[in-house]
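Much of the work behind modern protein science is quiet bookkeeping, done one molecule at a time. Below is the pair of lines this work produces for a single protein:

***
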Amino acid sequence: MQQSIKSNVSAQKRSVIFMVICSFFWSIGGLFIKMVPWNSFVISSVRSLITCFVFLGYMKAMHYKLIVSKRTILAGATLCASFLCFVTANKMTTAANAIMLQYTSPIFILLISCIIFRQRPLKKDIFVVCAAVVGIVLFFLDDLNPGNMLGNIIALGAGLTLGIFFVFGSKSTSIDENMSAIFMGNFITFLVGIPFYFLYPPTFTVQSVLSILVLGIFQLGVPYILYGIAIRDCPPLTASLISMFEPLLNPLWVFLVMGETPGIMALIGGLIVVVTITLYSISNIKTATAQAAQQSQQ
């Protein structure tokens, strides 16, 4: 029994590490989306088609079963909606607006958990979400502008659907179901975008082809494989909070490619988010370790 408890704690630590890696790869999305001069639905569709091949290869190698059920289809539909909203928002408003509004997902997770699942959030959950949101607002305050109102609303939709997907992921019963839900999300996105190939035919250049390959393989494929493994042991709120590293890393890519530097408010906001997420994750791991120690003594 003690060995089983230690295994559960190790699995939680591994899930946190995997979620950090996911955020690292997700963060390149905004830059490479803007480097592809295609319609947002076409970008989403082609990117997800590439990711589907990555997932099929991984699932076959690991002998995972593709589960087509009501749960995986619904989870896939919310992931598809998040993909489409985020890519569209990046085309219609600033990348800062799109990312910041997408990361309202922890707020929606708390609301969904309270209203639908009747779960009472802990005080630290509420505090951490508020602190993280304040940090992100400060981080982008230097460059934030109203942008296109419709684009901002669509970006907010990305936050809502991403939050729903995190909740779905936490309710899965197996890693096969996790992987199947992510595959379904990409497959549905691919199907939805097909009509737009004809309405807005993509132009293929070296830059667009390389960028879409990076998006499909490294920005979606690899991190979502890690996400599918991690989400069973990582609570949805923790997963969403750790994924907030993405808006912190995005300016780094902008700095490396375009030479932009963040202002003082952005640095303060970034510090708040990093410290908040780190302390929250450490707190959860310590709690799990303490509970494991208590159970082993009984």
